[in-house]
Amino acid sequence: MTNKSRWIIAALLACGTAAGAQGPVGKDLFIRGAFNGWGTDNAMVYKGKGVYEADILISPGNHAFKVGSKDWSAEWVIDPNASVKVATDTDYRMDTSAGPEDYLFVKTTAPYKFSVDVSDPKAPKLRVTRLPNPAVAAINPHKGHQQQTAVAYPTFDGKQETVRFSVQDAAAPLRTYAQSTTMQLRDPGPQYAVYSEPEGLPVSRTGNLAFDALFALAATEMRQDSVSEIKDGNYNGGAAIPCECFETGEKWHYVWTRDLSYAVDLGLAMLDPARTRNSLDFKLSAFRKGLARAQQVAGSADGLQVIQDTGSGGSWPVSTDRVTWAFGAEEALKSLPAAERKPFAARALKALSNTIENDRIAAFDKASGLYTGEQSFLDWRDQSYAAWIVNDLSSMASSKSLSTNVGHYKALTLAASLAAEHGDDARARKYKGWARELKSAINARLWLPGAGMYSSLSAGHFDGAPMHKFDWLGQSLAIVTGIADGAKARSILARYPHGPMGAPVIYPQQQGMPVYHNRAMWPFVTAYGLKAAAMAGNASVADAAYDTLMRGAAVNLSNMENLEWLSGQPLLLDEANPSLIGPVINSRRQLWSVGAYLGMVVENVFGVSMEPGGIRVQPFITAKLRREAFGKTDAIALHGLRLHGKQVDVRVELPPASAAGGYYEVAKVTLNGAQVSQQIRLDQLKAANTITVTLGALRAGESAIHRVSADPYAESPAVFGPREPVISSLAAANGQAVAIDIGAGGNPSGTVYNVYRDGKLVAAGLAAGTWRDPGATKGSCYAVEAQFEKSGNRSHHSAPRCVDGGLHIPVTDARVKASLGVQGQNARFAAPHIKGWGKPGDRFAVDGIKVDSAGRYRVQVQYHNAANQINLGISGGVKWLAVKDAAGRIAAQGVVQLPHARVEKENTPLVYSTPLEARLKAGTYRLELSDFYNMSYLESNSTFSAAGGVEGPSNVFDIYGIRILKSN
């Protein structure tokens, strides 16, 4: 909360102002936390005498929470510098400013009363009290139902959960099902669900009641996620925004670019193309009107482009996976009727072109041929990056990730296709060329031959090595998009580790981190693994995916956001280590999980996928699926699929079940009784159609799968990586050899260390201690990784350290020329600085920079950006840096990023921007910093509640100086 807000509260109370419905605070307050998706479902009610209360039914877990207003202008925590574990029946003084979340540990589902007493406006008090559980009458949802079946699911601890399915009338055109489970659910509620097959969506009839019911559950949840308005506390003052869109889940009532795009690509676009188009269109934005535009910004005058949502370091281009929009757009374009497709295709081309052109300027590394930016969807930095990265987000911004680069590839290939369609052959050739070069760079730079998989990500600047870290989304997308050839695809599918319940989204796991992206399975990622397995013919990996998706939906009564990977639990309750409990957030009917399940049935089981101008029919039914899911029938059917306004029924005729492995080839396809190819043109379809697929021989295909297992409560070296080590000191000796002291980072015996110089491995298998490199030069930079000898699992790299300390020029230097004056040091920032620099028109330059010898250099800005927290916002600094020689000629220029940085009460550490690479001759140079743009410049963010929103764009930070380092 701002000082102004504190003053208003104090004034209201001091003057005895009559409190209305909002109470003396003058605004609505909410308990916002992991149990409600950080939303506004739990409003505090003013009870008088300065006390606000909210009663909330909370399930087991270690729940993070804050007291906050709808727009987060009020944000109260107990300690602004540290999280506090809250005990019940205890008073806590709150700080009315932003800070880390507090936690409430809950062992069993129960109602809790949250009370906030603001009688003393300078010291609000929080108290949490457990209330008695209300009595609940037992209900049998299956009573009177015509058919019932039960499915037993073994658990990780040697027990089992039972899921029961029933149907009221099996002969009804649209059935009503009941589903109950013995597993304790993640969120409070009954242990059963009752749902009906929605009108207008397809239904399955397979002779397997559980299979048909789970498909109906996914269709029901798709309809629940189909809304007429969306909302997020950070936008539009928390008020609803009209949109015939998909919302993201039960706890997430907004539309986010990557969630939506993957969901519709996996299965939703085919089933509701109009809502898909609306949702995708909502994630496009032009620049704000009247905004001054830097000359380096590319694209059309309005700047229409894909939105990078709020996030790490202040959003784009720290994160650049907004390009995943292309996955969804491509499927929408295949599914929309011609009259609706045409205007959307033109708009998609414009938005993709503007996005591509500006990403090429701000986030493309010419040296590697790869795009920079955070991993796609793995956007909780400490969950999947080195622990030190939270203090150096510039290094995350300059790293390159597999999943995000595959997204750029998809954007380029789709834009090339649309450009050709619109007669823009020059643009089509350009984007095809860029896509071809990117595919080559991904295979050259990120493929690890020894691992037989792609590296998930490279280290950032001063290192750059591809790390031995792996993620299932990136691997699967590389296969699905064709970046991986057949041999690479087979290798990936055979080598990526699968636990007893399925494939984790990252491998190996991170120590000291709770379950969310770390130690987790995400159904949408599993579904991409299924698509990849089907393409490459790996029945074992496909079977693992089928099992994961069906089990997860069955035992949870919903398509959950994520699950702990070794146990399959929606919440692994670890009372001994409450900080590791998780998944820390988990929503029912998560949109991309729903899309994943629907796509699994329609595309993989029944084999129907959209192609430009037609459909393809290619079921991937394994011997195991046929035997275990469809063993009681000779044919399965999908009824009521609507494609381009025409009804399509699909019947798959099954061969006899076999005890062998593999998958069944397609022997014959007929359309309305006439034999056709597996590619069916739209003009071949009538108003109503029946496609019959006859499966033939059982093909062995690929069966290799890498299985791993461990105790889900232990951080076993078998499935975890080591903690990253540290370079505790680095010193040049006699102007030649460099001595590096390797700190173990807390790793146990059986850990060895590998040293990288300038991104190349130069020593392996070392013990912690001192190592000397006789091959060092002044421009050498080093990083170290830890490796468990037995499992081979490796850590992230240490923070890099360079031999050259560089030339540092503070803002107090006479050579610095700026439009804003220098301010003195204070307790928080112990150095003189230029405060709040970066508004359009602000000037900053450094003259007379002397370079003694020709070579490669890296130029960085020393700064601090406190516009928002490191995991939030749209106000990361994005500027244009130019280096000019004595004659005024450009020697080097490009975008530098200045992401949000951490703030401490005293002695906040200063940070550096991403570096500008410059090849300079000996001589004198001038440095100039000017504007570029960030996501706050987009019209869609004009209602954002924090920096860069309602008060206008924010691209400002404090400058402390510049640094120039010699580079090899």
Automatic annotation (TrEMBL):
Gene3D superfamilies: 1.50.10.10, Immunoglobulins
InterPro entries membership: 6-hairpin_glycosidase_sf, 6hp_glycosidase-like_sf, Ig-like_fold, Ig_E-set, MGH1-like_GH
Domain Mannosylglycerate hydrolase MGH1-like glycoside hydrolase: 256-551
Superkingdom, natural source: Bacteria
Keyword Nucleus assigned: no
Keywords linked to the UniProt accession: Signal
UniProt signal peptide: 1-21
TM spans (from-to): none
Matches recorded under Pfam families: MGH1-like_GH
Thylakoid keyword on record: no
SUPFAM superfamilies attached to this UniProt entry: E set domains (SSF81296), Six-hairpin glycosidases (SSF48208)
Protein name, as recorded: Esterase
Native source organism of the sequence: Massilia agrisoli
